[in-house]
Write a sequence for this structure.
């Protein structure tokens, strides 16, 4: 759009080449601070991370090129294999939950209900609070002694003993999934709702005249109209969820015995143990998936 | 057609909404009541009601734990990071949307990919770079690093907002003798106030909420930001829940109020920048 306008503009009022040069110098000047920031803080570290992952660098010693040794070592580690499994389970479960629940909630909030604005503000709450606060609250809710869930379960007689939700191998991952879902779903609902409001009402009216039922209307009108937004939200959120640090760090720190270990937390532990080469290899191992997702999102976001 | 609900539908919808409200509000309610309880009440008299409510946790936090200093650090970092990020993003977004030069599309792509690059990929090399720049364990270093994550989103969103402003307005001003900079400050920025608010809210909360990088870069107690300070209220396996929840309430209230007030702009910002492109 902007590009077309500019082309039209240059055609309509021909500038001298000197004026055009001034404009382009000015353009570079304005964009320079952001570009420099990103070169120093994103592009260089990005390339640096890849380079380090091929070295045996530790804190205080630059290390030497070791080829794929770090990756070979990692892939043979049971804790790394667990990390791959956990990350997939966590992300798939959380995203599927978010997709269905948020679609349902967005459709519900799009109905002619009373105090719609109130309900929409309410939905924002889990997302409006800092992630670290949200996960501290869930850590407390799950607490065997002071936590609300145990209080309710024991008080109502549903459970005779205190349940250590985050400390039990089988329960830790489902508990993390629920907390991650609670924090993340509002973004989806708000985005879906905004898209739903752009769906033309006339289409629904025509469909109703043709005798389409609610499911048919959803399937053939609603879904195609909001497809683009749904796709972008799913992909963006998948990138964020895969790279989430706070949920795991605050709830379980990857435990018990790696049952909830994910890539970012494993890389953080690697950094703490000062073995930077290996830690970097953990981050870089995610790169193929990240690149794949980012390329699709970028393409979708550039379409208008 | 869809303006009236049947009674059965009404009952279903409102029960679902009430269930939703409980799911959303119960954890927040629990945070607040625990922040008002002393340890002996939390463990010995477990209750979902605010029995024995006291402000003692808040008093201890602010007077004995030095939490005011942490709040000050967080506020300083968030305000400065926001100011710098929004200022340079305005310039970049204007340049990318309105001026024509070689490599412009590549720069736009760089910004988009930077936005999509997660912190977990960058924190290890960033910790080395920050140490080399002698910015480790400083609030300046933190502010600088946060630009990596705030400027791409701000620029991308502002590009969406700037694009929606008709070109004629600017051309008219320039015919009247305004230069580019004046066109930006007198025409574009005043018309982009909703966008500027949205971008500021996202940048401010991004910096206020950030845990991972602050945890890595900040080593001395007097420079801790709020999320890091809360970590240090946990000693080993001992969670002082009253204090932790009081700190959480204090940390959450400002950003939640901000989101509530700027709600309209935030939602608009999401659809202008992050989602629709």
């Amino acid at each position: 759009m902007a590009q077309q306008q500019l082309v039209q503009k240059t055609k309509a009022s021909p500038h001298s080449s000197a004026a055009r040069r001034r404009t382009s110098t000015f353009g570079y000047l304005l964009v320079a601070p952001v570009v420099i920031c990103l070169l120093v803080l994103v592009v260089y570290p990005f390339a640096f991370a890849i380079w380090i992952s091929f070295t045996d660098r530790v804190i205080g010693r630059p290390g030497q090129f070791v080829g794929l040794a770090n990756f070979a070592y990692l892939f043979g580690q049971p804790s790394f294999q667990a990390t791959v499994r956990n990350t997939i389970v966590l992300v798939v479960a959380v995203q599927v939950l978010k997709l269905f629940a948020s679609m349902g909630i967005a459709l519900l909030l799009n109905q002619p209900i009373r105090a719609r604005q109130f309900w929409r503000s309410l939905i924002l709450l889990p997302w409006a609070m800092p992630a670290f606060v949200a996960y501290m609250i869930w850590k407390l809710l799950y607490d065997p002694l002071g936590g609300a869930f145990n209080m309710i379960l024991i008080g109502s007689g549903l459970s005779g003993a205190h349940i250590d939700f985050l400390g039990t191998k089988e329960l830790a991952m489902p508990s993390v999934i629920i907390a991650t879902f609670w924090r993340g779903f509002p973004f989806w609902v708000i985005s879906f709702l905004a898209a739903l409001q752009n769906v033309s009402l006339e289409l629904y009216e025509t469909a109703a005249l043709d005798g389409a039922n609610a499911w048919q209307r959803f399937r053939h009108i609603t879904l195609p109209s909001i497809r683009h937004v749904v796709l972008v939200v799913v992909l963006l959120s998948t990138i964020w969820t895969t790279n989430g640090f706070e949920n795991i760090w605050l709830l379980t720190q990857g435990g018990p015995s790696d049952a909830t270990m994910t890539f970012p937390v494993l890389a953080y532990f690697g950094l703490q143990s000062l073995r930077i080469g290996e830690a970097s290899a953990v981050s870089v191992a995610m790169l193929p998936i990240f690149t794949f997702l980012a390329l699709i999102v970028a393409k979708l976001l550039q379409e208008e | 057609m869809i303006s009236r609900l049947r009674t059965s539908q009404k009952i279903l919808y409102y029960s679902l909404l009430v269930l939703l409200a409980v799911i959303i509000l119960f954890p927040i309610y629990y945070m607040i009541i625990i922040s008002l309880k002393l340890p002996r009440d939390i463990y010995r008299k477990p209750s979902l009601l605010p029995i024995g409510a006291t402000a003692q946790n808040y008093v201890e936090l602010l007077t004995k734990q030095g939490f005011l200093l942490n709040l000050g650090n967080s506020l300083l970092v968030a305000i400065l990071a926001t100011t710098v990020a929004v200022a340079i993003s305005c310039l970049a977004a204007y340049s990318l949307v309105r001026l024509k030069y070689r490599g412009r599309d590549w720069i736009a792509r760089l910004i988009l990919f930077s936005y999509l690059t997660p912190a977990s990929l960058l924190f290890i090399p960033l910790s080395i770079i920050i140490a080399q720049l002698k910015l480790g364990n400083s609030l300046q270093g933190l502010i600088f690093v946060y630009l990596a994550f705030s400027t791409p989103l701000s620029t991308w969103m502002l590009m969406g907002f700037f694009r929606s402003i008709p070109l004629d307005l600017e051309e008219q001003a320039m015919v009247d003798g305004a230069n580019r900079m004046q066109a930006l400050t007198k025409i574009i920025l005043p018309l982009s106030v909703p966008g500027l608010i949205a971008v500021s809210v996202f940048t401010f909360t991004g910096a206020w909420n950030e845990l991972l990088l602050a945890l890595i870069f900040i080593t001395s107690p007097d420079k801790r930001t709020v999320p890091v300070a809360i970590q240090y209220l946990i000693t080993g396996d001992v969670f002082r829940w009253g204090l932790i929840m009081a700190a959480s309430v204090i940390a959450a209230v400002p950003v939640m109020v901000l989101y509530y007030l700027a709600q309209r702009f935030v939602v608009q910002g999401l659809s202008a920048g992050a989602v629709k492109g």
